[in-house]
Amino acid sequence: MLKLLSYLRPYWVASLLAPLLMVLEVSMDLMQPRLMASIVDQGVMQGDLAHVGRSGLLMLLCALLGLVGGVGCTVYSSKAAVAFSSDLRRDLFAATQAFSFGNLERIGTASLITRLGSDVAQLQQFVMMLLRVFVRAPLLVLGSMAMAVGISPALALILLAVVPPLFGVLYLLIRWSVPLFAQVQQKLDAVNLVLRENLAGIRVVKAFVGGERERQRFDAANADYAGAAIRAWHIVTLNVPLLTFALNCAIVAVLWFGGLRVEAGSLSAGELVAFINYATMILSSLTSIGMLLMNYSRARVAAERVNAVFAERPEIVAPAQPQQPELQAVAERGCGPEICFDRVTFRYPGALRPALDALTLTVPAGATVALFGSVGAGKSALLGLVPRFYDADEGALRLAGMDLRRLDPAWLRGQIGYVQQETVLFSGSVRDNIRYASPAADAAAVEAAARAAQAHDFILRLPQGYDTVLGQRGADLSGGQRQRLAIARALLPRPPILILDDATSAVDLATEARILGGIKALLPQATCLMVAQRAAAALAADFVVVLEQGRILAQGSHAGLMSTSAAYREIHRGQAALEKVFHD
Description:
Blueprint: H1 2-5, H2 12-44, H3 49-97, H4 101-107, H5 109-151, H6 153-200, H7 202-207, H8 211-237, H9 239-264, H10 269-311, H11 325-332, E1 339-346, E2 356-363, E3 368-373, H12 379-385, E4 394-399, E5 402-403, H13 409-414, E6 416-419, E7 428-429, H14 430-434, H15 443-452, H16 456-460, E8 469-470, H17 479-491, E9 497-501, H18 509-522, E10 527-531, H19 535-540, E11 543-548, E12 551-556, H20 558-564, H21 566-583
Helix pairs in contact: 2-3, 2-5, 2-10, 3-5, 5-6, 5-10, 6-8, 6-9, 6-10, 9-10, 15-17, 15-18
């Protein structure tokens, strides 16, 4: 928690002014009962209306000064707390951007969303209470107790007998609530996971009429969350009634014994009124302290979850002294480097068998290689190692003879145009989506990339052409249109390495052939790795690699493999039969 509170350091002025202004408000509040006692004893009881007027004006002045202090404290505490949460959320988001896929899978995207949203908001609320209640409540308790002792030490013993045990009760409630609130946040992660999966797969849900099943999944997760929250808040809600009951009993005792002392003449009526006001202040302050401590128990859980993200070390980091001068020179000439897989073994986290098993493959500089294979053959795993989304468990992967681990991942990915299986577009215009990797690209470069990807014509048919604003994830475009925009986005920076992971699966054969031709014309010297299932890709490639269970089953030209590889022939026969069915 203390580590996170260091985020308040840039806002030390607001963080200091807030409690100072709260001290002003508390001081004015502590004066009010004394002034009221003076009005009762010296004004009302003595019939001195002038004294009542003077003391009343003084009470009004104190109230106005207290208002200034309270409003000022609220303004500065809000400013500091919101700035604190904004900076914390920014750094938390930046930390996630450095994570590898392994880090993201270990924490979970749904959990990260909760930590960036709910957990940071909980910490913001705690900081705001810290700058206000943490100052106000203890000062009011101590100040009211001191004033009460000054009025009547004997009656103050009643309050002293009640207050310390109540702090013990608060301590026990906190001990019980912290683990319960940890469960609440975990259950909220589960709710966010179900919600995220449902929204991401809403088309599938509707296509298979899975709404009722999804509602049942959500209801189950939501019920678990609600149950955990109710158990936690049962503990929290014990705070106020217990404190109220105990201190009301104390006030009743004060009234009883105070009345006896007034009757005996050892205590004035005004002093009794003031004493009761101070006792009420203690009651309200202890209630506020209880809520602050309960809020602390939630904030402590949130802080642990946020710190866990900061403590997570990215699995893939830049070396202390990146060495890429040879590759830099190659990239600047627009030439793709040689890519060499040397007995590479890779297993996804938690997988039972390796996705790649001692695979050896050399892709010559500037060559285009088509990867074929059944589902689970290791095609996407092979492509994912090149930009270092993952690192190989065994073996080495080299670019232009240099081990990938000696390269800065950010620099490396800047040399790669990558189109993944699942097309991802962002909210914004068509132009902005194509320029995602090259924000400064001019209109001519954007159009050239779109033409190569066979996207230019359909873009012109959109309502505002390149300035048409897309819906979320490009939902208002067809699958083939989204794929072509993703290809244009990858082509725009003119990368020396191009990776296409089944990037033309949603377009027809003729369009696929034109796309591959456009890519070759735009990037004639790029090294290209592509996963494909159709003959057009094989014919456009310099050679073809057939994968099976993470191993190379066969490699060679399309014509050669059609005559020598039964597995390759079977893939193409199946694809041809499927295309015939859809054509007929």
